[in-house]
Fold this protein.
Amino acid sequence: MREIGCLEITKAVDGLCKDANFLLPKDVIKALEKARENEESSCGRAVLDQILKNIQIATKEKIPLCQDCGTAVVFLEIGQDVHIVGGNFYNAIKQGVKKGYKNGYLRKSICHCFTRKNTNDNTPVIIHTDIVPGDKLKITFCPKGGGSENVSTLKMLKPAQGIDGIKNFVVESVKQAGANPCPPVVVGVGIGGTFETTALIAKKALLRKIGEHNKDSEIANLERECLIAINNLGIGPAGLGGRTTALAVHINMLPCHIASMPAVVNMNCHSARHKEITL
């Protein structure tokens, strides 16, 4: 049994909050650069130029990539041979978020649903936990912006609608979202499971590196087909027209009940932020 202290966890989360908001993953930058090379619209190219310049400024000056520093979403993979010591595990994560958003001068966006009173520390934290083999703790921090989250869609499809029904749902969801999620977007799709699990696997799909397809060849082909159809919509960077509406479509699938076929679309904006650490 390996012990990991709460102070170490808090320190790690503190750093993840800042790094995720300041430093865009390399795979996202590479995808944006490739999009700039291939974009046919002069307006679209100009938008992508500004996005890439913004990334350089944020990296150099250690300032947020976007003024929306997001809801604090944390994915945990806890080795079954790990023992958390020195306090409450979830509280250690909460303290890390509080410190990261304060010390990193990150915008705190979490408020009461009705009164809209801000919690002033960007908590509570949304935490998803998986128990896995081993003696390590993997923490993935994803600051989820409001604009892209607001256009999330869920549909309980009929099994008879099949793959074509899924494809139509995904493309139509992006079409209806238009410029609101700040394209070019990364489209996370969940298929199967139950009402709540399909939403979770859609969000997890956003963590996959751009350029990596689902290992199931049928799902990988669906990802490619959806991406082509989405980029043929003409929405383009910032919604101003062009061929680059999405950088990638990532699909996760679970088996489901014989009477059901739930599907969820959850998007990341062009600032597809997430960082991880393994303790």
Observations:
- The helical segments are 6-22, 26-38, 42-61, 89-103, 146-149, 162-177, 195-205, 217-231.
